[in-house]
């Protein structure tokens, strides 16, 4: 267990990066670079300092202003990075100085998403559950792994006055509570081989990967200049799948911020078939954790399975880079076959990975009237 | 002095048989006072019904059940590491006994204590009594060691329809890592059991039933108490241990059946509606005045106790307007069978 921290203070970008580099992995939403991506929010790097002056915990805090008032919601997406489970009964000693620090920065409330995994469901379990009409949500399915110590963190947060944000279907509030991971290493840390990863996939995935190779789909890495081509396909995907695309400038900013921090933090993958761009994706990696972040594919030439080819290349590269987790990001908790989101789960389940449940997002009101007004305002915005 | 249960055997066994037919896979529950009928008798009836397993409530009931019944004996109350005594030792050593587990630590402890023991894994239903949270099942499986899982159990509440909850647990069982397809369930109607079986063809659904089998046809059971004495009494006369003055002229009946038989023992009732609550209130005020309605029916009506029942007999008031029974007559008595003890059970 880490020694109990004594203070919380603003840390420099360098101190923050040093701390991140010293850990196996932290969420990319907790890197200093993410503040540059979310430039419309104020931001601060915050550190927990022990008696010897060491940084033993860190957070990227994003400040969201309340309309017309110089007060802020302090948001720590997928953070802070703390020894959550090991802190045990001392968790208050870590969180109370944070609250005092943020209050002094005119925060009326804190919202955080402890990067603590509480439960896991293997692919076979999720698959069986989707097929079972009596199981409507992931929460009703017996987890294959239940981390009692991680679950106990929720009780401690409640005792400390934090409130769990309700999630509806797992997607409405902030970061998703349920995510899908493809483990690239065994529980004991032994890296898996490409053959093992491939063998874990369902037949459809394996067949599609083979099909793409046979059709001659060529996957290459792109640079900043290729983001425009990625964006063209991404907009086409957005129209087809009915979501609002982000502007090209968002991806350029993300590229500059993430690669500026570490040249290998963000990658762009392009899948071509006979000279035509058929799929493009972005991969983000911090230490041993790799995230498939954005994906796009053309409506034409779907039969050459460019999207499977590009996924497989990202997985292999993540494996080669020493990643232990290939993160396919959020899923909803619904298992209702009639829910449109279930297709997304089935696609991810096909990789043979596992659904993981996070502790969810939590709020600590620091100024009750303002916090109440803010939550009412957010509810109205929907 | 006799406080007797007369069983119309033909009718009772007819009911048992039809109940067993409506409840395929039935595990008869034989616990406590044997529902007033006696545990040994129920064990014999279970064997006659062809049951391969009976369920008892606690470990103290195991040795007698093993003696009286040739098949498996399942213990409904979970095994806990702090349980000790000869009955527990015998149960742990006997391969015919099936234990219930409901906590990860207990599974590990039992696996160490009695490797090879047979267990039923229980889920914590909305009863919130004991059992595993569904997310703990994987940890339970990991702790099993050499234990043999013979089934999964869900003990459901008695109100309303439990089919949805039963099915949710059945689905949880099928999606879990537990290597069993036997699902023990309580408090489902025969119709609900049928629906559950239809929706879960992969599972063997086995109902565990006590009351609705043994006491499902109360018409076959007749409780008779003997009138031991009949005294004329006048208003103001003092009677009984407490020398309380009676309020009306009439008769004082001395009837067999007292606290040792379970007469006058009450458990809190679940009062469903306003009327029931009103009745309870009205009764409460009479009780406050020291009067309580007795379970004895004399001359067509339930009569009041003159004072709290004695150990083996009760003193009951009968107004002068009623027809008094003769000494030696039988009167009917309404008992709570799960708390009743009879001097004699007569199979008619």
Automatic annotation (TrEMBL), chain A:
<dbReference type="InterPro" id="IPR016181">
    <property type="entry name" value="Acyl_CoA_acyltransferase"/>
</dbReference>
<dbReference type="Pfam" id="PF02388">
    <property type="entry name" value="FemAB"/>
</dbReference>
<keyword id="KW-0808">Transferase</keyword>
<dbReference type="GO" id="GO:0009252">
    <property type="term" value="P:peptidoglycan biosynthetic process"/>
</dbReference>
<dbReference type="InterPro" id="IPR003447">
    <property type="entry name" value="FEMABX"/>
</dbReference>
<keyword id="KW-0573">Peptidoglycan synthesis</keyword>
<dbReference type="GO" id="GO:0016755">
    <property type="term" value="F:aminoacyltransferase activity"/>
</dbReference>
<keyword id="KW-0133">Cell shape</keyword>
<dbReference type="GO" id="GO:0008360">
    <property type="term" value="P:regulation of cell shape"/>
</dbReference>
<comment type="similarity">
    <text>Belongs to the FemABX family.</text>
</comment>
<dbReference type="InterPro" id="IPR050644">
    <property type="entry name" value="PG_Glycine_Bridge_Synth"/>
</dbReference>
<protein>
    <submittedName>
        <fullName>Peptidoglycan bridge formation protein FemAB</fullName>
    </submittedName>
</protein>
<keyword id="KW-0961">Cell wall biogenesis/degradation</keyword>
<dbReference type="GO" id="GO:0071555">
    <property type="term" value="P:cell wall organization"/>
</dbReference>
<keyword id="KW-0012">Acyltransferase</keyword>
From TrEMBL, chain B:
<dbReference type="Pfam" id="PF01168">
    <property type="entry name" value="Ala_racemase_N"/>
</dbReference>
<dbReference type="InterPro" id="IPR020622">
    <property type="entry name" value="Ala_racemase_pyridoxalP-BS"/>
</dbReference>
<feature type="domain" description="Alanine racemase N-terminal">
    <location>
        <begin position="8"/>
        <end position="170"/>
    </location>
</feature>
<protein>
    <submittedName>
        <fullName>Alanine racemase</fullName>
    </submittedName>
</protein>
<dbReference type="InterPro" id="IPR001608">
    <property type="entry name" value="Ala_racemase_N"/>
</dbReference>
<dbReference type="InterPro" id="IPR029066">
    <property type="entry name" value="PLP-binding_barrel"/>
</dbReference>
């Amino acid at each position: 267990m880490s020694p109990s921290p004594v203070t919380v203070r603003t840390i420099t970008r360098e101190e923050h990066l040093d701390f991140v580099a010293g850990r196996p992995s932290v969420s990319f939403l907790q890197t200093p670079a993410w503040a540059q991506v979310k430039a419309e929010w104020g931001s601060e790097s915050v550190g927990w300092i022990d008696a010897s002056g060491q940084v033993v915990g860190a957070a990227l805090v994003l400040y969201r202003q309340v309309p017309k008032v110089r007060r802020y919601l302090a948001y720590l997406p997928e953070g802070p990075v703390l020894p959550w489970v090991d802190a045990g009964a001392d968790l208050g000693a870590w969180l109370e100085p944070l609250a005092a620090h943020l209050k002094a920065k005119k925060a009326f409330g804190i919202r955080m998403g402890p990067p603590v995994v509480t439960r896991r469901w293997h692919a076979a379990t999720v698959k069986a559950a989707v097929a079972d009409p009596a199981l409507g949500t992931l929460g009703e399915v017996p987890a294959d792994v239940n981390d009692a110590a991680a679950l106990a963190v929720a009780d401690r947060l409640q005792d400390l006055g934090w409130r769990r944000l309700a999630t509806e279907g797992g997607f409405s509030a902030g970061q998703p509570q349920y995510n899908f991971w493809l483990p690239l290493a065994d529980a004991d840390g032994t890296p898996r081989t490409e053959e093992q990863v491939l063998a874990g996939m369902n037949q459809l995935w394996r067949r599609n990967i083979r099909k793409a190779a046979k059709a001659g789909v060529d996957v290459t890495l792109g640079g900043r200049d290729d983001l425009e081509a990625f964006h063209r396909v991404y907009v086409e995907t957005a129209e087809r799948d009915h979501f609002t695309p982000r502007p090209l400038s968002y991806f350029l900013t993300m590229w500059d911020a993430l690669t500026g921090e570490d040249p290998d933090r963000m990658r762009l993958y392009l899948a071509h078939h006979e000279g035509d761009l058929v799929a493009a994706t972005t991969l983000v990696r911090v230490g041993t954790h790799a995230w498939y972040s954005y994906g796009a594919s053309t409506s034409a030439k779907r039969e050459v399975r460019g999207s499977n080819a590009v996924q497989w290349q990202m997985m292999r590269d993540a494996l080669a880079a020493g990643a232990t987790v290939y993160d396919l990001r959020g899923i909803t908790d619904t298992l209702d076959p009639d829910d449109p989101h279930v297709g997304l789960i089935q696609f991810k389940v096909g990789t043979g990975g596992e659904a993981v449940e996070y502790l969810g997002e939590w709020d600590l009101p620091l100024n009750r009237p303002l916090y109440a007004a803010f939550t009412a305002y957010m509810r109205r915005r929907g | 002095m006799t406080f007797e249960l007369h069983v119309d055997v033909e009718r009772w066994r007819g009911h048992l048989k039809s109940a067993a037919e409506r409840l395929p896979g039935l595990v008869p529950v034989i616990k406590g006072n044997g529902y007033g009928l006696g545990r040994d008798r129920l064990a014999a009836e279970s064997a006659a019904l062809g049951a391969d397993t009976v369920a008892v409530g606690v470990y103290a009931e195991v040795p007698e059940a093993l003696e009286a019944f040739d098949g498996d004996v399942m213990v409904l109350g979970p095994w806990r590491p702090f349980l000790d005594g000869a009955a527990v030792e015998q149960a742990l050593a006997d391969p015919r006994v099936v234990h219930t587990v409901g906590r990860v630590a207990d599974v590990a402890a039992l696996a160490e204590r009695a490797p090879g023991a047979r267990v039923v894994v229980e889920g914590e239903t909305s009863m919130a009594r004991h059992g595993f949270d569904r997310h703990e099942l994987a940890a339970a499986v990991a702790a099993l060691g050499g234990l043999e899982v013979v089934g999964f159990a869900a003990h459901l509440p008695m109100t309303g329809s439990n089919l949805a909850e039963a099915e949710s647990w059945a689905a949880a069982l099928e999606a879990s890592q537990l290597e069993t397809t036997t699902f023990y369930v309580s408090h489902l109607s025969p119709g609900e059991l049928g629906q559950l079986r239809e929706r879960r063809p992969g599972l063997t659904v086995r109902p565990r039933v006590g009351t609705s089998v043994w006491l499902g046809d109360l018409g076959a059971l007749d409780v008779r108490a003997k009138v031991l004495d009949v005294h004329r009494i006048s208003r103001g006369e003092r009677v009984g241990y407490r020398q309380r003055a009676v309020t009306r002229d009439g008769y004082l009946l001395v009837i067999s059946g007292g606290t040792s038989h379970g007469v006058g023992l009450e458990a809190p009732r679940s009062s469903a509606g306003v009327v029931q609550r009103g009745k309870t209130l009205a009764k409460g005020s009479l009780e406050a005045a020291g009067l309580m309605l007795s379970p004895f029916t004399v001359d067509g009506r339930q009569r009041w106790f003159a004072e709290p029942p004695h150990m083996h007999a009760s003193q009951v008031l009968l107004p002068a307007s009623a027809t008094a029974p003769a000494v030696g007559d039988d009167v009917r008595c309404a008992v709570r069978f799960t708390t009743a003890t009879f001097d004699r059970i007569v199979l008619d």
